[in-house]
């Protein structure tokens, strides 16, 4: 099937069901949203509404961060600033790919193609001119901030917030102004580092929230990432970002990105633990010491040597030396980025790099101590900063759900609004009840 045929299906299909619940429930979704944003029901009520959990959790984040459901995004960036953003953005070079696969066939389909930066700023909006004029009424225009923290639940912003593909239809949007629209968005990542570069979005009528559209946008995002990877050998890759990079934060499977050829090795839990510990011990570790750090009781030296042999076959002998085991090249990591930003006093950047706990499934004692060190250091910096936005971001993390001091700090903060203060009070009551 050609791209044009796929978009024709998108433009003509009038599906009445998606993700397991009927579109006939549209009124109940709208009513649930109105009750929720008015404070007449809480998050537990939303569980009885036929909504994906992704949507209800996004509504709760949107309300907690003070998004106004009756307003869209603020004014778009000035033309000069937008030009600077576009010219320096890594996705600028991939625009011909996006236009050929999506935009060229969307001009008469009632569909718009949006490309955002990693912070949710819309960089390009192209496609059907009539749809573009209508979308401008809700400020879906280049330069506008469509992040979830600015507009609430929406496909491009929520896709970036969760770092996963997202479809939002009609009244699932948090802002009422966006209810006439549906959208499908897929994040685009740096193929070498895995860092989010932005999102690719298709916006239109209810038919846009379909399986065909998701497959089309997903395929285009993959094509864009492949294009960017091919461009790197031509010298377009910044030197500062060259070299291996380890991703060990958050719930996703750990990955080691090798700069040469842009290859990515998905790691087992044990291999990720070893690499994380070698990062924190540049002097190297003996097999005995590594065994003790990974398991104080049951791990023997023979097992460690076997694991190291397997790991070196995967990543190469040129990366890991022996006697003692040590890294032979500088390896960057998301963990290291957080520690470096904290040392520099840049808490906002530390939060940007912190996608979740260090190897949360690991039971290795040394990894557990390192996990606690990283989390506690970031938490302490956020609490002493007095920054309401950073505190809110910290409390949105799963590990902060039981952080009573943090929630009390939010409740007492002089800049907190009534809705956010009410949420903090409810959370404190629930915590006190659990700990009673």
TrEMBL record:
One biological process term in Gene Ontology: phosphorelay signal transduction system
Keywords: DNA-binding
UniProt source species: Mycobacteroides franklinii
Stated name of the protein: Acetoin dehydrogenase operon transcriptional activator AcoR
Occurrences of domain OmpR/PhoB-type (ranges): 262-327
The keyword DNA-binding belongs to this UniProt entry's keyword annotation: yes
UniProt KW Cytoplasm keyword: no
InterPro entries: GAF-like_dom_sf, OmpR/PhoB-type_DNA-bd
Gene Ontology terms for molecular function: DNA binding
Regions crossing the membrane: none
């Amino acid at each position: 099937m050609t791209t044009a045929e796929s978009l024709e299906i998108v433009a003509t299909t009038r599906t009445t069901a998606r993700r397991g619940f009927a579109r006939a429930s549209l009124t109940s979704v709208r009513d649930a949203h109105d009750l929720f944003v008015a404070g007449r029901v809480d998050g537990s009520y939303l569980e009885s509404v036929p909504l994906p959990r992704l949507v209800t959790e996004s509504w709760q984040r949107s309300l907690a961060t003070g998004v106004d459901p009756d307003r869209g995004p603020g004014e778009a960036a000035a033309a000069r600033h937008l030009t600077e953003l576009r010219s320096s953005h890594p996705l600028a070079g991939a625009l011909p790919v996006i236009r050929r696969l999506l935009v060229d066939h969307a001009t008469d389909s009632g569909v718009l193609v949006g490309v955002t930066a990693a912070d949710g700023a819309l960089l390009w909006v192209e496609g059907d001119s009539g749809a573009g004029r209508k979308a401008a009424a809700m400020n879906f225009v280049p330069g506008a901030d469509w992040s979830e923290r600015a507009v609430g639940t929406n496909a491009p912003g929520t896709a970036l917030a969760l770092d996963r593909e997202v479809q939002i239809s009609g009244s699932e949007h948090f802002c009422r102004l966006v209810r006439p629209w549906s959208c499908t968005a897929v994040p685009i990542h740096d193929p070498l580092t895995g860092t989010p570069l932005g999102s690719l979005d298709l916006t239109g009528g209810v038919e846009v929230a379909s399986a065909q559209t998701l497959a089309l946008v997903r395929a285009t995002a993959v094509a864009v990432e492949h294009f960017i990877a091919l461009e790197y050998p031509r010298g377009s890759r910044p030197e500062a970002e060259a070299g291996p990079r380890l991703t060990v934060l958050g719930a996703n499977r750990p990955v080691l990105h090798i700069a040469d050829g842009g290859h990515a090795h998905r790691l087992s839990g044990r291999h990720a633990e070893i690499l994380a510990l070698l990062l924190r011990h540049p002097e190297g570790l003996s097999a005995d010491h590594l065994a003790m750090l990974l398991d104080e009781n049951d791990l023997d030296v023979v097992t460690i040597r076997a694991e190291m042999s397997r790991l070196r076959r995967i990543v190469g002998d040129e990366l890991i030396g022996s006697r003692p085991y040590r890294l032979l090249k500088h390896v960057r990591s998301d963990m290291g980025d957080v520690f470096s930003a904290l040392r520099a006093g840049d808490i906002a950047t530390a939060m940007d790099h912190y996608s979740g706990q260090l190897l949360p499934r690991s039971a290795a004692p040394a990894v557990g101590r390192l996990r606690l060190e990283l989390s506690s250091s970031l938490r302490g910096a956020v609490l002493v900063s007095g920054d309401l936005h950073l505190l809110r971001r910290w409390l949105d993390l799963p590990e902060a759900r039981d952080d009573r001091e943090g929630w009390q700090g939010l409740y007492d903060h002089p800049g907190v609004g009534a809705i956010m203060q009410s949420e903090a009070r409810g959370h404190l009551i629930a915590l006190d009840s659990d700990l009673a």
